[in-house]
């Protein structure tokens, strides 16, 4: 037997769904955000601590913010705007909200500090920690440190402020982009940025018109195209070097 449909959201067009331990956050195609389930720790983000929201409730604090992606931890929620800002709310007892304190937030608050100076492209959330990938390829984490999710080699140390994973600064792909890639669609600019200068997004769309709707396929294709282009450049360089040696004889 199929579970019942959430009728309130059917006519609005769902873009992404994120699930916490006892709550659900939903991003709509018009960029509105709704939540339902347990709100005992403020994780729905409606400004109150109602124990349960049995029906979807609009998170008004995020209206007209231009929400691009959402994520959920056990008892906290995260949202990313198209302009690269990160908002967190809910349980902050382990610093997972990135506000510099461990206070609980009943509505979304923008993460400032060092992250406020960065443009974030992708967000993710674990049970009690949060991660952000910036446009420069730098990765920031905050929250609980138990079992090493902070990636800074300091054991169980927590951080209520975003901390850069320094060892990945020069090699952002040391963490697989697949692990951070959102399940929603990509923009044409997103795909173009992953391509080498020698290839255009128009070339890709001619063969794969629906590529923006499948980010994992887009990532695979751009990787393979870039590998092929790199091999071609290497072969061409070898031919040029051989030609120069021949002409010098």
Describe what this molecule looks like in 3D.
This protein is of the alpha+beta class and 249 residues long. 22% of the residues lie in helices and 29% in strands. It contains 5 helices and 12 strands. The strands form 3 sheets. It has a 4-stranded antiparallel β-sheet with strand order 1-2-3-4. The protein starts with 6 loop residues before the first helix and ends with a helix.
Broad structural category: alpha+beta
Helix content: 10-25%
How much of the sequence lies in strands comes to: 25-35%
Instruction: State the major sheet.
Output: 4 strands, antiparallel
Any idea what the shape is?
elongated
Mean pLDDT over all positions: 79
Question: What sequence of helices (H) and strands (E) makes up the elements?
Answer: HEEEEEEEEEEEEHHHH
State the total count of DSSP E strands: 12
Which regions contain 5 or more consecutive residues with pLDDT less than 50?
A: 167-186
Sheet with most strands: strand arrangement: 1-2-3-4
The helix count comes to 5
Distance between the termini: 80 Å
Radius of gyration: 22 Å
């Amino acid at each position: 037997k199929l579970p019942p449909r959430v009728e309130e959201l059917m006519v609005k067009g769902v873009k992404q769904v994120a699930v916490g331990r006892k709550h659900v956050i939903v991003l709509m195609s018009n960029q509105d955000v709704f939540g339902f389930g347990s709100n005992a720790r403020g994780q729905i983000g409606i400004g109150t601590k109602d124990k349960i929201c049995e029906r979807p409730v609009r998170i008004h604090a995020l209206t007209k913010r231009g929400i691009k992606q959402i994520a959920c931890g056990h008892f906290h929620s995260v949202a990313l705007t198209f302009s690269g800002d990160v908002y967190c709310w809910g349980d902050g007892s382990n610093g997972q909200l990135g506000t510099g304190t461990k206070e609980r937030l009943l509505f979304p608050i923008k993460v400032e500090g060092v992250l406020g100076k960065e443009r974030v492209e992708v967000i993710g959330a674990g049970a009690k920690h949060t991660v952000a990938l910036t446009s420069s390829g730098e990765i920031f984490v905050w929250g609980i440190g138990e079992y090493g999710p902070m990636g800074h080699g300091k054991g169980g140390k927590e951080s209520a402020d975003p901390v850069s994973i320094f060892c990945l600064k020069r090699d952002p792909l040391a963490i697989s982009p697949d692990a951070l890639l959102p399940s929603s669609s990509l923009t044409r600019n997103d795909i173009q940025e992953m391509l080498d200068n020698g290839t255009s997004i128009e070339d890709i769309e001619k063969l794969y018109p629906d590529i923006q709707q499948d980010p994992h396929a887009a990532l695979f294709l751009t990787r393979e195209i870039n590998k092929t282009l790199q091999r071609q450049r290497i072969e061409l360089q070898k031919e040029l070097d051989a030609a120069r040696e021949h002409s010098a004889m």
